[in-house]
Hints:
It is a single chain. The termini are far apart. The chain is globular and about 45 Å long. The longest helix has 21 residues, at about 5-25. It has helices at about 5-25, 45, 80-95, 110-120, 125-130, 215-230, 260-265; strands at about 40, 50, 75-80, 95-105, 155-165, 235, 245. The protein is an alpha+beta fold. The strands form two sheets. A five-stranded mixed β-sheet has the order 2-4-5-7-6, covered by helices on one side. A two-stranded antiparallel ribbon has the order 1-3.
Amino acid sequence: MTRLSTAVRGLVTMLATLLAVTAAPTVALAKPDPRAPKDFVALGTVDPTIVEEMRYFTPHNFVGERIDGYRQPLCILTRPAAEALHKAQRRLLRQGYTLKVYDCYRPQRAVDHFVRWAEDLDDEAMKNEFYPNVDKSRLFADGYIAEKSGHSRGSTMDLTIVRLPPKPTRPYVPGEPLVPCYAPRAERFPDNSVDMGTGFDCFDTLSHTLDPRIQGEQRTSRLLLKHTLEVLGFVNLAEEWWHYTFNPEPYPDTYFNFPVSWKSVARR
C-alpha cells in the first residue's frame, strides 16, 4: 500500500469518526431548580412557635393531591413578611393563641397546577367539601382560580389562629367522606383552629371576611385575626378570611417559581 493510500484511508477513518460523534444523540442535562433570593426565609427560622400545616403538600386540598412545587411542608416568605408575622405571634401568644399557616410562598408551577385542574371539568373529586355550591366551570369567572397569584411574590400567606395549647389535627385519608366546608364545626373535617365559620379554602361567599351571616364567636375570631395583622401592615383579601399580604411587598411585580424546599432558601 502506498503512502498516499495510507493517508487517504486515515483521513476517511477520521471523517467517519467525526460524523459518528456529531450524529450521536445529545444527552440533555437536568436544568437546576431556581433558588430563592437571599431575602426569602423559612418562617420557622424566624419564629418556630407558629404552627405550620401546609395543605398543598398534602392531598387535603381542593385538587385532592399534592400540588406541584411543594417538595417539603415548609412556609417560605420574604423576611419582612416573616418578621411581621413574628410580631403578630407575640401579641397573640399573650392572649392565649398561636398563629397557624396553611400556605405561604406558592411557586408559579403550583398555580399552573391549579389552572390545569380547573380546566378539567370532569375532576370534581373534592367538590363536596371545598366548592359544593359552585359550578366548576365558574371558578375562573368567579375569581376562585387565576393564572397568577400574589402568593408567588412571597409576601402573602393563608393563616388562622389556634387556642393554646394546640391540639394535633388528624391526617386526611384520601377517599374518606367529604363534608361541606361551611357545615357546623362539629361536622366539618377536624381542624384545631378556632371556628371561623368555614374551613380554609372554602369556595363560598360565607368565606368573605365580613359576611354579615357570620356572627358571634366566629365573627369575633375573624376580627381578632384581622385587627392583629392589620396594625402590623398586613392587608386582608375581603373574599377570604384567611388571606393576608404584607405591605410594602419587596417584590410587588415578580412571580417566582423556585420550589418549596429547604434547598431553595439554603444559603450558598
